[in-house]
Specification:
- This protein is mostly helical.
- The protein has a single domain (10-130), classed as Zincin-like (2-Layer Sandwich), CATH 3.30.2010.10.
- Helix content is 44%, strand content 10%.
- The protein has seven helices and three strands, in the order ααβββααααα.
- A hairpin with a 4-residue loop joins β2 and β3 (54-58).
- α1 packs across α5 (75-94) and α5 crosses α6 (102-111).
- The protein is globular and about 35 Å long.
- It binds zinc ion.
């Protein structure tokens, strides 16, 4: 049985399903991503759950009035979804999905729309050495 994370915002399920579907159109990992379920939850930070192919994105990262979302037309949320998905794909491929390492960033750069990749640099400055470019 798939265990759901706590504090899910069910009324926003359609929004994250749509974000995942968006990423689906442009990645070599489509078959795997179809098995993944994402949730928007009232949590401090996102997390991927490799045991059951689920992940959570915090509600604050979704909010349309979050400044980075407002400026990027929802792009920060898409970036966040791509980040957590990259952990699940990295785990599937390399069995060490929780590291922010070279393999992780290869996947991230393939699935995250280019115009939103720079958000990663706010989170991990080290991402620059793996090829994440500034805006
Ligand atoms: Zn991460």
């Amino acid at each position: 049985m798939t265990r759901k994370p706590n504090n899910i915002q069910p009324h926003l399920q359609e929004r994250i399903d749509k974000a995942i579907a968006n990423i689906l159109t442009s990645t070599p990992y489509n078959e795997f991503i179809k098995e993944v379920k994402g949730y928007i939850a009232d949590v401090v930070r996102g997390k991927s759950h490799t045991k059951n192919n689920t992940f959570t994105v915090p509600y604050w990262a979704y909010k349309p009035d979050y400044p980075k979302n407002r400026k990027s037309n929802g792009g920060y949320f898409i970036y966040y979804v791509a980040h957590e998905l990259s952990h699940l794909i990295a785990y599937k491929k390399f069995k060490h999905g929780s590291n922010h390492n070279f393999e992780f960033y290869q996947i991230f750069m393939e699935i995250c729309p280019k115009e939103y990749q720079h958000f990663e640099l706010n989170y991990k400055k080290t991402a620059a050495k793996y090829g994440i470019a500034k805006k």
